[in-house]
Amino acid sequence: MRTKLALVVAGIGVLLASAPVWAHHAFAAEFDVNKPLKLRGTLLKWEMVNPHSWFHLDVKDQDGKVVTWLIEGGSPNQLIRMGVTKNTVPIGTELVIEGYHAKDGTNKAVGRNFVLADGKRLFLGGSAPGGGGDKK
Length: 136
Fold this sequence. Notes:
The protein is an alpha+beta fold. It is about 25% helix and about 40% strand. The chain has 3 helices and 6 strands. The protein has helices spanning about 1-25, 25-30, 75-80; strands at about 30-45, 55-60, 65-70, 95-100, 110-115, 120-125. The protein has a 5-stranded mixed beta barrel. It starts with a helix and ends in a 13-residue tail after the last strand.
């Protein structure tokens, strides 16, 4: 009886521990390399969470209406190592995000770079093609 209980508990533990892995995805599963984009807007919010950070960017659409885009970036640790912090890019910063549109057509993208007003590019890490911070 104890062996059976131990196996059940161990099995549940393995399932719970693997749940975050199921939630993770590859670039090609969610984003389209054939749909690069540049979004100009105002940084509204940061979410520094694992496995990917999220940036909320207010962008004016073709009609002048402000819409919020969700931009996926790398992990907090990766971003900090690349120089992307809440101090270098504070809320309210006007910037351009270079990245790739989501396949589902929603206002979601994976970011490749932040381009600041002075032209400086900050690599966003994550699953976007061109990893390593190259300046393409």
